Records
---
Amino acid sequence: MFQGVHDPNEEKVVKSLRDTLLSKGQLPEKYDDYHTLLRFWILYRAKQDGPVVLGWRHPWEGHGDHSHDHVPEDKVLIHE
């Protein structure tokens, strides 16, 4: 499938991504190579994790009950 020497962890991720895309019929032949899929995965992860890493978004944002908007008023601490 992939020629050359690759990092085993990266190869596992790329193989999983490739298998998923192929099973859904969403992998055009011209993009079916190791480096293209790896770049896609890196960009996907950067989009997901980048705002958190840069401090633009809280890591729990969008995860349901962990939102700070749901703190009961009697539990709010006021610092003076």
---
Amino acid sequence: MLVQAYNPAALHYIIPSNTLIRRENTPATERITSRWLACTVPNRGRFFMQVSAVGDPGLAFTLYFPLLLSVHAGLGVRLMWTLLFCEWSNMILKW
């Protein structure tokens, strides 16, 4: 795949600065964002996949919570409440 050099002026031709991005325009916005990321940080797919795997909510419930709870009970409880709120809001907002 040929990656073009990042040109910030080119993005102004795609999305003018006074354009309100609506929900129906999100696929176009995603394409622009992914193209910008591919140009800005090329060959970093493996790194972002590892970051995504480390930040997986399932891993947080099964590994990070018990580990943090054994180190400091208050932080473990805060982490659990944070995880529950994030997962709940993610589910509600997607629905």
---
Amino acid sequence: MRASAKWTACTTSLCPDRTAAAPRPTSTSGECARLLAEEARAFRPAPVQAASNHEAALPALLAARAVGLPFVYEVRGLWEYTTASKIAGWEGTERFALERALETLVAREADLVFTLTAAPADELVLRGVDRARIRLAPNAIDPDSLRPVARDAALAASRASRKAPSSPGMWVP
């Protein structure tokens, strides 16, 4: 069985066939890290990269360190605060403190950290992450990079010959 097929047992979002409706797996971060390290040894990616939260990132960090590769952490949000916005008193719980500590640990140990906005970057700096290792990677594009192009008559004819359906949101020549 390929290692990637085994990832379904991991608690990480790296499991390609895990759905939101699936029961929560019980594997440890160490087991997931071992499986990820196997894949990293086989494929030798330039860095090992993981996105929020620590459940995905900690095994990836451990795997990267095990095989001597750089680790990049993409912080898409501070999930402990997302939970706190939904559950009154969450910020005073041990679970909040644990999740905050694990997020901080992964970010501090990462070779490079991406955040979507300056707010989480600032928060991570307050937690001890070196600002020089943080980059912004916003969920957006530069609208100036979108340039109109001339209509491609051959492409339009090709699409028309396939009788593409006309409905809202579909491109039709």
